[in-house]
Amino acid sequence: MKVELILAEFGRPLPDIGNLQAAFPGAAVRVITDGDVPVLFSGPRAGHRMNDYWKVHRLLESQADTAIAFDGDMRIVSADDARVLPGLAQRFGLCLPINPRYMVRVDTLVGVDSDGQLDETRGTGHAVNCTPIAFSTHHERARECVEEYCRIMVSNPARGPLAWWRSFWKTGFSPCLLPPQWCVCQEHIGVGNEIVLHVGHERVRTHYRH
């Protein structure tokens, strides 16, 4: 199986490529950063929106069987567990970790860069985090969902988790939800069986000494 890592970071340090490659030996690597792609957004959240849009857009362009997008502030601490991610993507089409806010309603009303609008579900669906994202490029329904996400981000820019929910709802496709061990944020410090740390959170970085 061919695997490609899509590494995105706008306005901040580049990801630790060596750490990610160690978990996925032989994987192709594509880095996206400032100056590599057209600027589609403006304003104080432009960098975040660029990151949330372009890493997903590059998933659609990948020639690998599985493409996995990582933000620059992620660190794999269990390579053996991380290596099952392509298999999960092949089985389910699309995999994203759960958001520590859990509900779309909470993430919509509390999260930065939200328009505050809830749909007919009243925000009772599951909220996701936006890294890592694993995508089976041959899975038609997952591709439809990913394409819809990109359309939403361009037509009605918002925080990535909210755009993902709107794509799930519109397409009727739900991804494989990964447990918090796949994106350990400060709310899940000490959860046990950690796979990927969100070291962009200072408390996570300090606790795990990364």
Topology:
Blueprint: E1 3-9, H1 17-23, E2 28-33, H2 46-61, E3 66-71, E4 74-76, H3 79-82, H4 85-92, E5 94-103, H5 104-110, E6 126-128, E7 133-136, H6 140-155, H7 160-171, E8 176-178, E9 196-198, H8 202-208
Parallel strand pairs: 1-2, 1-3, 5-8
Antiparallel strand pairs: 3-7, 4-9, 5-6, 5-7
Helix pairs in contact: 2-6, 6-7
Can I get a quick summary?
By secondary structure, this protein is an alpha/beta fold. The protein is 37% helix and 21% strand. Strand 1, helix 1 (17-23) and strand 2 (28-33) form a beta-alpha-beta unit.
Describe, in plain words, how this protein is organized in 3D:
This protein has helices spanning 17-23, 46-61, 79-82, 85-92, 104-110, 140-155, 160-171, 202-208, and strands spanning 3-9, 28-33, 66-71, 74-76, 94-103, 126-128, 133-136, 176-178, 196-198. By secondary structure, it is α/β, with parallel strands linked by helices. It has one domain (3-101, 128-180): Alpha-Beta Complex (Spore Coat Polysaccharide Biosynthesis Protein SpsA, Chain A), CATH 3.90.550.10. Strands 1, 2, 3, 5, 6, 7 and 8 form a seven-stranded mixed beta sheet that branches. Strands 4-9 form a two-stranded antiparallel sheet. The radius of gyration is 16 Å and the shape is globular. 42% of the residues are buried.
